[in-house]
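Exercise: predict the structure of this protein bound to manganese (II) ion.
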Amino acid sequence: MILESEYKQRREILASKLSKNSVAVIYSAEYKIRSNDTEFPYRQNSNFYYLTGFKEDNSCLVIIKKRKKTKTILFIQKKDPKLELWNGARLGKVEAKKRFLVDKICFIETFSKKIEELLESSLNLYFDFKLDYSKIKIIKKYSKKIATYKNIALDIEMMRLIKSDSEIDLIEKAISITKKAHHLVMKSKKIDKNEYQLQAEIEYIFKKNGAYSDAYTSIVASGNSANTLHYIDNDKEFKDDDLILIDAGCEYNYYASDITRTIPVNGKFSDAQKELYNMVLDVQLKIINMIKPNIKRSDLQTKSEELLCKGMIDLGILKGECKQLLKDKKHKKYYPHGIGHWMGIDVHDENPYKYKNGDEIPLQKGMVLTIEPGIYCNKNDKTIPKKYRGIGIRIEDDILINEDSYINLSKGIVKSVKEIEKLSL
Ligand code: GLY
Ligand code: MN
Ligand code: MN
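Solution:
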């Protein structure tokens, strides 16, 4: 659980980064239409949530910084019994005043007027440039009033890079639920089932254990489908001797998990599957072992490409000299993606990978990133040994950087051939 005092502290840190004479506006997310009269489940904007912990729409956080003094206002919706009958209870001003450690709670209806007043005496306006609705609302209304626009998202995302203990607790909780789901499907009978049935079993475990949502659409990709990186059709029937690449993780209280395991439909890896699988696993373990503060993500990327390239030469997938193959990017055909990404409130945390001066941000204590090497052998690729065609493998864990090395937060989710086969039988 994240205490109100922690949200307050985050707002104070953010305020300390703003220029003098500034106003920062951070909006809640908007509802997104799914089809006529129905919406997707509401999901709060990650940066707004990080600063407030507030899950209602039509809200806005404003930070006003004069010289050194700052003031925070949270704009919220009025209570409205008629609308609440349809769309659920609103917190309302009385409760909001008790809960949030902001200077003032105002109704959202007063937002425009208040901002206009504030901008009369402010030089800088911060908002999230990436959000269409943020841009449209701000630029349309206030474009002539202000000297400079600045992107608030960058500062918030830099802060989000380092996780607090309470954030790590939530990530660990998400991973513990995801572990249950992955172990359940390792054990469950898969022959005569369909990919979406396994998806349903996974997502049932998420919800049953209090994870309201998946952190991203689950990938349940059997056989050659695993060679489509973002495969989400999940509509094929399992074939007895196929592998299933399952990239599925729940979101718990707004914190993600992101886990991939690749398992056999019939519970046993074939020799060819085992060869490829162990090669990827060996690379994953080696890359995880490199992790410590001050290492760069690009170092992990380079090493993973080198190791996978060597592994592919050993298995006869690539032919030639490793250095030259890497130079010619031949390995990219089979390992086209990154080694991992930051993870937190978003599964791909938006946090930047570089400082403003262009230097790469090294790993530091409190960061969480995924390590997810993979190899993808399309069934139509005639250049590789026949036994590997149609196999796609990825193995993904969530890693926390600590004082001098790392903690694999998902190490409890089994991944050796032996362990997976044992659970499957
Ligand atoms: N699940 C998306 C990813 O692994 O990046
Ligand atoms: Mn990932
Ligand atoms: Mn993933």
